[in-house]
Amino acid sequence: MPKNQLFDDFPEFTIGGRHGGFADYVRSHWSLAISLPEGIDLDKAGPLLCGGITVFNPIILAGVKATDKVGVIGRGGLGHMALKFLNKWGCEVIAFSSNLDKKNSILEMGASKVVDSTNPEELAKIAGSLNFILNTTNVTLDWNSYLTVLAPKGKFHNVGAVLEPLAIPAFSLITGEKSVTGSPLGSPALTRTVLEFCVRHDIYPITEEFPMSQVNEALEHLESGRARFRIVLKN
Fold first, then answer.
1. What are the boundaries of each domain within the chain?
2. Which of 143, 223, 219, 224 minimizes the C-alpha distance to 178?
3. Interatomic CA distance for residues 57 and 67, integer angstroms
4. What is the rounded distance in angstroms from the CA atom of residue 201 to the CA atom of residue 214?
């Protein structure tokens, strides 16, 4: 197989092993490039192309309806966008948090209710009630406690990069015909949809801006875990 044809058959990252967002320009096939919709906030559009589409895609894949009762685990870069999307989707949104000191800010992000994920009694109150749960964290959790919260035929969807295997009890799935799924980002067509959805409902990520001249300071801020919640570099 010719070398060029080999590379054409596999997707290539824009940042893995390349300059990515620090490049002067990116070359791509026209079918993979989409235009930003009119009226979008250009200062906040960038994170929608990664974190935004990552948590929007599961809503489509799972067939989430406006009448569904859903849950979101995590309130970071991915989680806070999921709360905003599901709120505007029309759902009743339950946010799971181990830090209730952040309750007010989580409610402002779009949650209908905040449940203490460390309290078995709180989880027992909503057992069997959620149609869909989206996990945006990258740590190992008590997966069975969340499966118990799912309603029959409920879906537990994972976009968090959990490094350890998920210990899923078989009977927690079997007895309620529940499922565990996952997904990456999304297609160019769905990316166009999420951008239009954000403009229509005025949904944007919480960002911090740094001038490009302070890129090293921005990366240090990110690595320290102090970023809230996405950093945007302005040239």
1. 48-182
2. 143
3. 18
4. 32
- DSSP-assigned states of every residue in 129-150: -EEEEEE---S---HHHHHHHE
How many alpha carbons lie under 13 Å from residue 44 in its C-beta half-sphere? 18
The answer to whether the beta carbons of residues 168 and 158 sit under 8 Å apart is no
Please give the Cα distance from 180 to 222 (Å, whole number): 31
Q: Which of 146, 125, 144, 183 is nearest to 70 (CA)?
A: 146
Q: Which of the 8 DSSP states describes residue 166? A: P
Please state the rounded mean pLDDT for residues 113-140: 96
pLDDT digits (tens, 9 = 90+) for 159-210: 999 999 999 999 999 999 999 999 999 999 999 999 999 999 999 999 999 9
Give residue 5's pLDDT band: very low, low, confident or very high (50, 70, 90): very low
Collapse the DSSP code of 162 into the 3-class scheme (helix H, G, I; strand E, B; otherwise coil) and give the result: coil
* Angle in degrees, CA 178, 144, 52, rounded to 5: 70
Q: For domain 48-182, give the CATH superfamily.
A: NAD(P)-binding Rossmann-like Domain (3.40.50.720)
Short-list 203, 202, 70, 68, CA closest to 136: 70
Q: According to the model, what pLDDT value does residue 19 have?
A: 72
Q: Is the pLDDT of residue 7 over 50?
A: no
> Does residue 229 have a cis peptide bond before it, meaning omega lies within 30 degrees of 0?
yes
| CB-based contact 54:78 (threshold 8 Å) | yes
